[in-house]
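Late entry, evening session. Most of the bench is empty. Finally got around to the prediction I had been postponing all week. Sequence below, unchanged from the version circulated by S.P.
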Amino acid sequence: MIRYALKCEQDHMFDSWFQSAEAFDKLISAGLVTCSVCGALGVEKAIMAPQVRTARKTEVTQAEAKTGPLSAPASPAEQALAEMRRMVEENSENVGEKFATEARAIHDGDAPERSIYGQAKPDEAKALIEDGIPVAPLPWGNRRSN
């Protein structure tokens, strides 16, 4: 197992474990590594200091104690964003790439009214806004399962 310090395109820093360096490279090229904070796909290795442990039992260092679980958000803003994402995902339906069509159908009364989220191309989102259909961008990227 190997642990890498990673950084996403939104400058979130996080650590993740991989079976090997080759496994990491394979997952990155397949687009299966996402930011643990925002879900962005643009993830790369960050500069990290090597950790060397001796065969003797070692105590947890102060730095290790501060970091907490690898999946925990690093700042209050990231914690708030993670909580907002959890609430949206628990209380809304993910309609994926059909977002613009479904939002328009709900607005026109052709589909049942409900909270939805998904992806829309910029021109689709602009057309929805111009037609008075209330939409808002979410501050995170797509989440893929690893």
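Two things to note before I forget:
The longest strand covers residues 2-8.
Residues 39 and 143 are 5 Å apart (CA to CA).
Will write this up properly tomorrow.
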